Automatic annotation (TrEMBL):
Keywords: Transcription, Transcription regulation. The keyword Repressor does not apply. PANTHER family: ARAC-FAMILY TRANSCRIPTIONAL REGULATOR, HTH-TYPE TRANSCRIPTIONAL REGULATOR RV1931C. It comes from the Bacteria. Pfam families: DJ-1_PfpI, HTH_18. CDD domains: GATase1_AraC_1. The keyword Transcription applies. Residues 212-310 form the HTH araC/xylS-type domain. This is Helix-turn-helix domain-containing protein.
Length: 319
């Protein structure tokens, strides 16, 4: 697999312990493809927002060796418009081409350092007004889980950090590796970055006839031309009730969810098989190869053949 991709996590004063541990948990589950180091801005201990401190083994010099730098969130009481002392210089020392990622309040540090000017970004929805007031040059979207802008990625709070890290594994190494990492972490393998941060009822009322069984059935029958009526019929609900409950439980519409599953399955087949594009389309329930091309391009901006060349070529090179 070659030299592991080095991820350096910068822990700032007031860091949230849960998010601080996400990079190691997710990237270490990717089978040796990443090396995760944790550093502080002065090489000393860092107080968390809990009742303990942590002592990262690295100082800011570790940032100069990073392929990816990740800023976990810190207590909102520590928020300042300008980055904490030394952080701007430390970020300026990153090697050319290094990728920068933030979770939640970490986006404030990137914005304060000028790294988000003119870029799309997100942070926790509850901090959106303050973020806009401090950083009007940033194209903030507080309604999404994460934003991938190439070499800079920002995510919302808590578990969206898991989402963005799995997204990077997926982007770097493909669906199969990301899915294995997700299974090891017992996490959902994919939550779309554009999914809403805030769902009206994030924990739905327990009901005997929720939509989970129908979602499992749909995944087992993606090759069929499933319609909204088919899904509602399987769930034994009216269309209106099914759509409402689906949105409450999943945070997106049934149609959008179904297309996402078809595209994901198609990507898996493009990576792992030599099936012609039309056969891949048929196996995942798209009417034709043209339909697959349109949906794949809408999702990731690339054609099936280009996607296959990229991932199959990368995998061959790694082997």
């Amino acid at each position: 697999m070659g030299t592991p991709h080095r991820v350096v996590v910068l822990a700032l004063d007031g860091v949230y312990p849960f998010e601080l541990g996400i990079p190691s948990r997710v990237f270490d589950a990717a089978g040796g493809r990443y090396e995760v180091l944790t550093c502080s801005i002065d090489g000393g201990p860092v107080r968390t927002n809990a009742d303990f401190s942590v002592s990262p083994p690295q100082g800011p010099e570790a940032l100069r060796t990073a392929d990816t730098v990740l800023l976990p969130p810190f207590d909102t009481a520590k928020l300042t418009r300008e980055p904490p002392a030394g952080v701007r210089d430390a970020l300026a020392s990153l090697p050319p081409g290094a990728r920068v990622v933030s979770i939640c309040t970490g986006a404030f540090v990137l914005a304060g350092a000028g790294l988000l000017d003119g870029r799309p970004a997100t942070t926790h929805w509850a901090l959106a007004d303050l973020f806009r007031a401090w950083y009007p040059r940033v194209r903030l979207d507080p309604d999404v889980l994460f934003v991938d802008d190439g070499d800079v990625l920002t995510s919302a709070g808590a578990t969206s950090g898991v989402d963005v890290c799995l997204h990077l594994v997926r982007r770097d190494h493909g669906i199969a590796v990301a899915n294995r990492a997700a299974r090891i972490c017992v996490a959902p393998p994919w939550r779309e970055g554009g999914q809403a941060q805030f769902i009206e009822r994030p924990v739905p009322e327990p009901v005997a006839n929720g939509t989970a069984p129908t979602r499992r059935w749909a995944l087992e029958n993606l090759h069929e031309p499933l319609t909204l009526a088919d899904l509602a019929g399987h769930a034994r609900m009216s269309l209106r009730t099914f759509v409402r409950r689906f949105n409450e439980e999943v945070g997106t519409s049934p149609g959008r969810w179904l297309i996402r599953q078809r595209v994901d399955r198609a990507r898996d087949l493009l990576e792992s098989t030599d099936l012609p594009v039309d056969d891949v389309a048929a196996r995942v329930g798209f009417a034709s190869g043209t339909s697959l091309r349109e949906h794949l391009h809408a999702a990731i901006g690339i054609s099936p053949l280009a996607y296959r060349r990229t991932f199959r070529g990368d995998l061959t090179a790694r082997r």
